[in-house]
Protein: Asparaginase
Amino acid sequence: MPSPASRIVILGTGGTIAGQAARADDAVGYTAGALGVQVLIDAVPPLQAVDLEAEQVAQLDSKDMDAATWQRLAQRAAHHLARPEVQGVVVTHGTDTLEETAWFLHRVLAPAKPLVLTAAMRPASALSADGPLNLLDAVTVARHPGAAGVLAVLAGRVQAAADLRKRHATRLDAFAGGDVGPVALVEDGRLRVLRAWPRGEPAGLQAIARDPAAWPWVAVLANHAGADGREVRALLNAGVRGLVVAGTGNGSLSAPLEAALVEAVSDAGVPVVRCSRCADGAVIDPPGAALPSAGERSPWQARVDLLLDLLVQP
Ligand code: ASP
Structure:
């Protein structure tokens, strides 16, 4: 019998980590999510010594991540994390929306056990695929005594969901940890913990219980040279329920875009949150800001926050 809480559950959702190309030297012309999660596990011999089970929750390219998959993933992760024999859960995922899924799971579950996402920049069929080591590292983190919260492990770095940012389109080391850097490093199979594991107040599964087809539409738009209010009015006419605007610099907006967004709040009752399109740095509200900012949240995280706010509104 394995000792209590020694089991690791691996939930597969697809992504490049499960991608397959016709040729081993083709790192872009592949099908993401082609392989099942058990195939990924079987490619990592040291995992044979781990008390593991696997479940396929989805099999998609994470560019196509959707509300129904998020709901199911949160439900399955919560189910397994609640089992006394489970020490931690690992999720294999695509890199494209990894930071959104990580933040969504953090906001909904903020688990006391580790919920560790991992991914890869090269498909499983590639020369020097990065997925197998990332998966092994993710399991190492999930098995680490005291590890907690929603984390992402890639290229030896363990990032908290709050700080996770995809920064590069193709490099293996594609993720950064915002202004604060990683929570821990995985070095030759050993974990060097740098700071406290992330904690949070979970919204709970009841917050996302509604039929995903009926989840409110929250759109992200940006300020840019020549930005005006037409896009805002088009979105309102199309039925948008919440807006996140990625402003320039410290969340600044062109005068016509800001006027249209203020009108969206006052006339249409659509909430607007202001972020920055800069990769790093929090938005600091000047006195009397016309629209509230999301502080250090990225536009993609702010979209999740606004979605959850709208979901729990009566
Ligand atoms: N398009 C892929 C995905 O997000 C990219 C990746 O996983 O690296 O599923």
